[in-house]
Design goal:
Layout (H helix, E strand, L loop, with lengths): L7 H32 L5 H27 L15 H28 L8 H28 L2 H29 L4 H29 L5 H13 L5 E8 L2 E11 L4 H16 L4 E11 L7
Helix pairs in contact: 1-2, 1-4, 2-3, 2-5, 3-5, 3-6, 4-5, 5-6
Length: 300
């Protein structure tokens, strides 16, 4: 394919993803509106904090849309291998949003405990938060489902962010229900407990995508998939060096083969191995070098 060829699959992938993220952005802005508006007349630290979390989600949704427009552009002269390496940057933005959610909850909880901030109750607040929890759960479920179908890191990160938001809104809801039961302290305590899970999620996404951007090695499981391809073909002595280049792997392979292979046979073998390795969903490109030797040794 030439560098400026039109990729119809990439076009529809970008179109569908932009459509989905646009819906998510609209939901986030809607949630911000219905959470923030009641706090203009009735004070609620928990609900207002949760509303700003939704506003942050709306903001990063816009950034994600911009990132998708860039990362799903077809390959061109300036980027002959495509633009998908921008995708880890998008996931990093989402991880920052998740971490900020945790910080907001921790700040609110500490202030409520040490400064004895009042925890307000309102049926309207409870209804708003139940709507928020329901919509965010749907976003978590649907984006997670699509992430698995498409093997899409962006949707996977959005799914985890939505799950963190479900817990954040649940924390605020406990804070509103608690006083009815005579346990106002439930709000900050529950919030601080939930924040630990939120931080774990956020830092986990950040760590994985920093690995994508810095060329880290894949997991043992992914390495084993490559080894199985070589071993099924009977190769015993070989070296593999897989590393991330963006969200996919680049694999360099050196294999000992008998020097009796002629040039045509060697070229055909290289192409077959290369195509097999690149057929793995985790791999973007494979480079195969055949090392001719008098006698193929066994590295067992």
């Amino acid at each position: 394919m030439e560098s400026n060829d039109f990729d119809i699959d990439l076009f529809f992938a970008r179109k569908n993803l932009i459509y989905l993220i646009s819906i998510f952005a609209a939901i986030n802005f809607f949630l911000f509106s219905i959470k923030f508006t009641p706090t203009i007349w009735e004070k609620s630290v928990s609900l207002r904090s949760d509303s700003f979390n939704s506003l942050a989600d709306f903001g990063y949704s816009i950034l994600v849309l911009i990132g998708i427009y860039i990362s799903y552009r077809p390959r061109d002269e300036s980027h002959p291998h495509g633009h998908e390496r921008f995708r880890p940057f998008i996931s990093l933005l989402i991880s920052i949003s998740i971490i900020l959610t945790g910080i907001i909850i921790v700040k609110d909880g500490i202030e409520t405990i040490f400064y004895q901030k009042p925890v307000e109750t309102s049926t309207l607040f409870a209804v708003v938060l139940i709507i928020s929890i329901s919509l965010k759960y749907l976003m978590y479920w649907y984006s997670g489902k699509k992430a698995k179908e498409k093997d899409n890191q962006i949707l996977e990160s959005i799914s985890k962010d939505s799950k963190a938001d479900v817990y954040a809104s649940s924390s605020a809801l406990v804070g509103i229900i608690g006083p009815y039961l005579g346990y106002s302290i439930l709000d900050p305590i529950f919030g601080l407990l939930i924040s630990t899970w939120i931080f774990k999620t956020g830092f986990g996404i950040a760590k994985r995508n920093i690995g994508y951007l810095t060329g880290s090695s894949p997991s043992k499981k992914d390495k084993q998939k490559i080894k199985k391809i070589l071993e099924r073909r009977g190769f015993k002595n070989y070296k593999i060096e897989p590393h991330y280049v963006g969200p996919k792997l680049s694999v360099s392979t050196e294999i000992e083969v008998t020097q009796e292979l002629d040039l045509v046979e060697a070229h055909q073998l290289e192409e077959e191995i290369k195509n097999q390795i690149e057929s793995l969903n985790e791999v973007a490109t494979a480079y195969v070098h055949l090392e001719p030797v008098e006698e193929v040794t066994n590295n067992d």
